[in-house]
Specification:
Radius of gyration: 39 Å
Shape: flat
Mean pLDDT: 79
Number of domains: 3
Strand order of the largest sheet: 5-4-1-6-7
Number of strands: 7
Strand content: 5-15%
Order of helices and strands: HHHHHHHHHEEEEEHEHEHHHHHH
Number of helices: 17
Length: 462
């Protein structure tokens, strides 16, 4: 609205769909009237800068207060400086030539801040030596003076900057007064010169097109955003959506659970405990999904793939299913023989615990002499095709979808009549496979064993 890039055609005060709903232009008419002129925008920006400069100047003046009631950091407290110098994360600290040992020595002598250091006189020759004389103490006092002089110099710079901004504001205010005084004469002049050019003015002030291009300097409908702004918007959107996503996850139930551990993300999680000290609190992340592939629960855990730290979460998941009138009938998990007793103790003896298809197929690698050989690849591919069967109707539909997609991509002109057939690999990748019932699955598996009997079964021999 301030840039006059939101316009309504035809000009109405209410919405077309609801006569009681005012438009944006009508609702913000007073704000637009006070904020659309360039002079007002510049004046508002100067007022904001002056307000920030006054805050910074007040803070700089307060830091030069060395009274007894002032904050100890104004005098450069050595106790806090000692903590900062012990940490490796702090750089460019004041008094660079004074280390941790010298700070402790100064504090033992009753010198607790830089003001006391400037007033200190080495009567007992604590820091005097035949080689350096009083050079060390003089250099420390010089660094303390430089620290306070830098604070005073910052205060002077802020005063000068504030005065310049106030002068600019006074100049802008005088310009605005001159414009207001000349406005009646300018309006009369415009009415005299534009009486014969009403049609041309209406043509010039036409509304912009609905969608302008990315290179349009006016930028009515397009705006360039940096990569950092995009990441910031994504993080903000994730922060807003996370409570809703957690609530949706807590409202899900599952009759078939798929439990698996992941180690990729957990290994990158570190906790900082001190200078150069950090550790990894989590070694893996547990994911629990239902039969629809929706996440029911997740947890970052330490140790190996053990159910002991996960038992309270699985019990709460069982209570959630009970509240939602759902019963867990089965669990698919890697190393089912190891976790079967523990999972059945949580979900009941009627709950079966088996391997998922991926880990079941991985178990065949141990029976093959050369799993990565050509015959081993043929055997594993045959087992996968025996487990995930693609119906004939789905193959036909997938083939038609691929042909239509290829024709749409290549058919730039209407006279495209090339015949194209997708490969069998493309059809299998496009088609949706299903796992048949146990009886049919057993017969299909036996058929694949017969087909690959000649070369593959010899690989299974020790």
């Amino acid at each position: 609205m301030r840039a006059e890039k939101i316009k309504c055609a035809p000009t109405t005060d209410v919405s077309r769909a609801d006569a009681r709903q005012p438009t944006i232009a009508a609702a913000l008419q007073s704000q637009v009237a006070n904020a659309t002129t360039p002079v007002n925008r510049v004046r508002d920006g100067l007022l904001r800068e002056i307000r920030h400069l006054k805050w910074r100047l007040e803070s700089a003046r307060a830091s030069l207060d060395f009274s007894d009631t002032a904050h100890p950091r104004n005098k450069l407290c050595f106790k806090q400086l000692l903590k900062d110098k012990r940490s490796r994360n702090n750089r460019q600290l004041p008094l660079p030539s004074v280390g941790v040992a010298k700070l402790k020595q100064l504090m033992a002598l009753g010198i607790n801040n830089a003001v006391d250091l400037l007033e200190f006189e080495d009567v007992n020759n604590v820091f005097w030596s035949h080689r350096t004389r009083n050079a060390k103490l003089n250099s420390w006092q010089t660094e303390a003076k430089q620290f306070f002089n830098a604070k005073k110099r910052k205060t002077r710079d802020l005063k000068a900057e504030l005065k310049c901004k106030e002068d600019e504001l006074n100049a802008i205010t005088s310009y605005r007064d001159i414009d207001d005084a000349l406005e009646p004469a300018r309006r009369e002049l415009d009415s005299d010169t534009n009486t014969a050019t009403d049609t041309t003015v209406s043509v010039v002030t036409l509304l912009p097109s609905l969608f302008s291009e990315m290179t349009d300097p006016l930028g009515y409908n397009a705006r360039f955003v940096t990569a950092g702004q995009v990441n910031s918007m994504q993080e903000t959107e994730f922060g807003h959506r996370k409570p809703m996503q957690d609530a949706k996850m807590m409202g899900l139930s599952g009759q078939m659970l798929k439990i698996d551990w992941s180690y990729k993300v957990a290994g990158k999680t570190h906790v900082y405990t001190g200078p150069g000290q950090c550790f990894k609190p989590h070694t893996n992340i547990l994911n629990v999904k239902n039969e629809d592939g929706l996440t029911l629960s997740w947890k970052a855990a330490d140790g190996g793939e053990s159910l002991l730290p996960l038992k309270p979460d699985l019990l709460r998941l069982k209570l959630r299913n009970a509240r939602l009138n759902a019963t867990t009938k089965g669990v698919y998990i890697d190393d089912c023989c190891k976790h079967r007793n523990g999972l059945q103790g949580i979900f009941g003896k009627d709950c079966f615990v088996n391997l998922d298809p991926f880990h079941w197929q991985c178990r065949w690698d141990r029976a093959l002499a050369k799993p990565k050989s050509e015959n081993g690849a043929i055997f594993r591919s045959s087992m996968s095709q025996a487990l995930f069967v693609t119906p004939t109707e789905e193959c036909t539909n997938a083939k038609n979808r691929l042909i239509a997609r290829h024709r749409k991509r290549k058919n730039k002109s209407n006279n495209y009549n090339e015949k194209w057939e997708p490969a069998a690999r493309q059809i299998r990748k496009e088609a949706c496979s299903v796992i048949p019932n146990p009886t049919k699955l057993r017969s299909v598996s036996q058929l694949w064993f017969v087909i690959s009997n000649s070369a593959t079964w010899r690989l299974m021999l020790p």
